[in-house]
Amino acid sequence: MELEPILIMSIIFGFTYAVIHLLVKRKERMAMIEKGADFSTLRNGNKPGILALKLGLLFIGVAVGLLLGSVIAEMTTLNSESAYFSMIFLFGGIGLVLSHYIEKKETKEIQNL
Asked: Could you list the mean pLDDT of each consecutive 10-residue stretch along the chain, which spans 113 residues?
């Protein structure tokens, strides 16, 4: 099995997501400038630990997806590319959703203090 197509698709997906994310964030900031909002809320919103948590859970999900994709490809007659892609995206998404709920719980605890 060749990993080159998987790597190329992952890079294309990552760059596309980054560009869209930056454009949306810029648009939000421009709207805040027009309304005269305070920018101190933007700086305190993201903590370095939260980014590490998100990336860690994402990479764990991708690794589990790769392992289960290879198991599914070997044990079934399913196309190996579809097995890999489906499991990578499934478990990567589960990791991101899990990080969202953990972050939500932590911010709720901080606000209750």
From this structure: 76 88 84 74 60 84 88 86 86 87 81 70
